[in-house]
Amino acid sequence: MAHDEKAAAQAAQTPELDSDSHEMSGEKQNGPETAAAETQVDARLEKADGEKKQARHTETEKGDLGRSRRGSQSSESPSISASSTTSDGQTKAALGSSSGPDPGRGSGSQALDEGPRLAPIATATSRMSVAATVRATVSGEGADQPAQPWSSFVEIPDSFYDRLSARHKQALVGLLSFCGFLAPISSTAVLAAIAEVADEFETTGTVIDVSNALYMLFMGMSPLMWGPMSEVYGRRWILLSTLVLFVGCSIGTALAPNIAAYFIFRILTAFEGTAFILVGSASISDMYRPTERATGMGWFLSGTLAGPALGPFIGGIIVTFRSWRVIFWLQTALAGLALVGVAVLMPETIHHKKIRNLAGLRTWAKARVLWSMVNPARVIRLYVYPNVMLAGMASSSLVWNQYSLLTPITYVLNPRFGLTTPLQAGLFYLAPGCGYVTGTFVGGRYADHVVRQWIVRRGGVRIPEDRLRSALPFLGIVIPACMLIYGWSVDRAVGGIPLVVITMFLQGVAQLFCFPSLNTYCLDVMPEHGSEVISGNYFVRYLFACVGTAVALPAIKSIGIGWFSTISAAFLVLSDLGLLATVHWGAEWRERVGRWRNERRRAEYNRAQARRGEPSGTAV
Fold this sequence. Notes:
One of its GO terms (cellular component) is plasma membrane. By secondary structure, this protein is an all-alpha fold. Helices cover 67% and strands 2% of the residues.
């Protein structure tokens, strides 16, 4: 019994990066690329043995603490500050001080001055990745100690990102973007057909609007499950299984005999659809280095953002000439095409499947550890980090703005400009859609450019929060200004169609300067929990999308499009201020909360050990 409990605890805390599980390349950890990476790290660590003064000096360059926290706080928390990738592809690592035990000895302590050693750590897997081993060595995290929640980010070796060719990566980004296009387009394509759906089911347009709000609600809830599951079972398996379910639920919606069936299948479609966006974002993080990740993310997000804008236009064409059910038959065909593409073209991209950590456990212990891995609370708990919460609010303000802009177009612009058909109203959705496509070419590249600039300014140190700087002027100035001009020009009937189209187009472009930075930050700031951080971000943003979809029309009818746009602009500005605070203090917040979580989990572990009559774990 005690053996199983100990094995379960070890499995739960096994490092989440293990090149032994690189299914994508088919190579084990002793492959040439990983071996080269290990050799490079070993050489650097051996060199550090005789350089005590240099090791002390590097404390001042910890990326996560920043230069403003030198001195008194540097010895409070074990950390690794990751630097940028050098031109020859090698990764530099600055190692902070550690008061924890040497994992190779199992007890006692070893300061960094004595030279950290890469010794095997007793875990459920046979070997660890280079990055995870370095982290465990510096922090003193071993099998005889409680799992330590990680605060300072760790740079992953370059070899992990070289397993695919550039062309293969580009093809996968295109495929993932197409998958990400499916769920959002389904959320808005039906907007042009609300009257037709209501007539067939003998209900009102308000009831159909409720189904759209529920669609967004369940898109927000599903990340709590799909994010952790993609860490356990891998990206490819989750993507394939959810695509199969998405195809089935799309067929069910197209054949719905009554309003109840329509609601049920729409909700189920939404629940599966978010997995495409989550897995796509996580796969981008698996494939691209941090200094080029936002570029790939920008291309990927072009599909997820263009979907809501192009959906009403496509839906308008369909309901003008055919039944509204054709919308969902088209959705079924597109999802089937994506399913074939993923099955044929996409390898597994995740660095380590957590399911491998369960090997050797008995059934009850395996079930307990598995639940701890997929528990939705893992996602919610990350919101104790203020930087994660504020990044979520920034994303939420953008999605609120997007859906509160798109949802009422038919009701607001049709009477303003005397439009009479769904197709005419659908043309307005092309403006932000074209903006999203245009922003794809520049938004992500600009974010990566800003990151590289700040790496140079910091003398080779990369801090995740620097990535958010590229989004600040667009989130706090450009989009709010466009929203105010759009809202008040329509409210006061000035400017005509060109002004409306231009402001909607500029909003689309500006959002592609914000979303790649925010998504990539979520994946960068905690690489070991990247899919869980991005899951929490999507959870919050789609809850706000649900609220925006539900309240937009009633609010506009009550206070007018001008004042409603003012509220949206104010939300954007406040979120931008929160993001600015994250840029300046986010690293400090991460370290402070990380230490607090370390202390709390250590205390829980020691209490559990005391109840079993075993010695407490060594303090880190």
